[in-house]
Amino acid sequence: MRPDASLPVDIPLLLARLREWHRRQAKEPLQEKVRILLELQRQELPLLARQRPLHSWERPWDVTP
Amino acid sequence: MASLADVFRVLVQLREEGIVTDYAIGGATAVLFYAEPTRTYDVDVFARLPSVDQSGLASLAPLYRWAESHGFTVDAEHVVVHGVPVQILPAYNALVVDAIHTARVHEYQGVSVRVVDPEHLIALALQAGGARRRERAWLLLQAGVADRLHLRALLDTHGIDAEIPDET
Q1: Check: complex ipTM more than 0.95
Q2: CATH number of the domain located at residue range(s) B4-117 in this protein
């Protein structure tokens, strides 16, 4: 099997799907987006801490959506 | 546990008590109201302040005093409100003043909160520069929430050099 055999061939279609995904995400209810943000904060903080020293205020928010 | 609405309620209180003359949420927290979530660990709030110090600059001292008298701690340049770091940024140029003036009022869990509109958010992101802010501008454009004619006029008015593609 050639290395490029599994590469996607329809890039415009994939980009259109990506745009559509962004639009769907944007239309989620606000409270759901806040929930996702709180989850993102928890997931990304350890990764951020590996890249640079954290500021004292950089921590997941201790609130409900 | 407090909710994000409780944090927004404090912003309303700041305005009602005259600690800030006016305010609008900006940055990644504002983007939440129009586009998909992006990571942030603080809430940026642009504000017009009533007090100036002896040098004529807007003073945050009354805000910090108010915060501490209400049991909120100050950490670096942030007021920590119910565990959420809130950075109050005094309006520092004409675009920010305009962004506060034209902010939209959104309802969040029964709290009416002022939020910078999408066109001003994009313009502010492009004016400030940096990869994360450009990404934020792109997200707002991709979400289809910005009036591109209005945005182009805004960029022109404030001398911000950026190409805004037509909607795809």
Answers
A1: no
A2: 3.30.460.40
